[in-house]
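Researcher: Next sequence.
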Amino acid sequence: MIKGFDHLIFWVNDSVQLSEACTAFFQAGFTISERLDAGREHAPNRQKLICFKDGSYIEILTVQEPDARLKHRLHKIGQHGDGWADFCLEVENVETEMLRLNAANLPVKGPTTHSKLLENGKEWGVKLLNTGIGIGHPVLPFLVEDTVGRHLRIPQSGIDHANGAVGIGGVRLAVDDLDLAVDHMSRLLNLTAILTTASDEPHAGQRFNLLNGHWIDLFSPDPRSSKLRSILEKRGEGIFSVVLLGHENGPISLYPNAKYGHVEIVA
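Model: Next structure:
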């Protein structure tokens, strides 16, 4: 069973700008957390976290070594500016989902296991199933099952944010072929889409309602929507906007290089 959003990935293309990205999120009212993984200073990936009360989080991710960055599956997405790159859904059992997706004729990679020790010697671990970028339709998420220490993987401190954000509400994805993307997402989620609209989009899209009020929206450009067309031409199919849940409505402004980092909070 798919439970809902686990986390979003915000890609920073130049590792020296990770601090700049974190400062921008902090100035936008977010509390920045760090998971104290052992040996993290020398790990190829560097990340900071924004954790929410609903148990989900944002991962601000970069890759330190240029060669490793070029080989990363998300590098192409970030070449034209920092921003949203991928998202992950939490599931009860990865193997069960793999069998279901195989039966639905969707390509998958995995499951793969991943674990780390914290500096205090405690362990967290997950099983991952990749379905989207580099595997299947690029707007599909990847799936995660916690095997041990979810409360360690997602720090429980720093979940209060000055801007009032309490969790992930939904993601909006730009797609070339709406019917094709809806078909793939429907098979992955085992759900039927419904029509939806967005205040900054001139035409309707398709929404998948998940548990706990979470949702995934798909939009394709038409002649009146130059914003989506520009995103697709430069960055490809994927997230163009994130909606967080909170106490007040309003868009969040990030730093200039975060061209693809649109985020808003809705009550």
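Model: The chain has seven helices and 14 strands. The chain has two domains: 2-153, 167-266.
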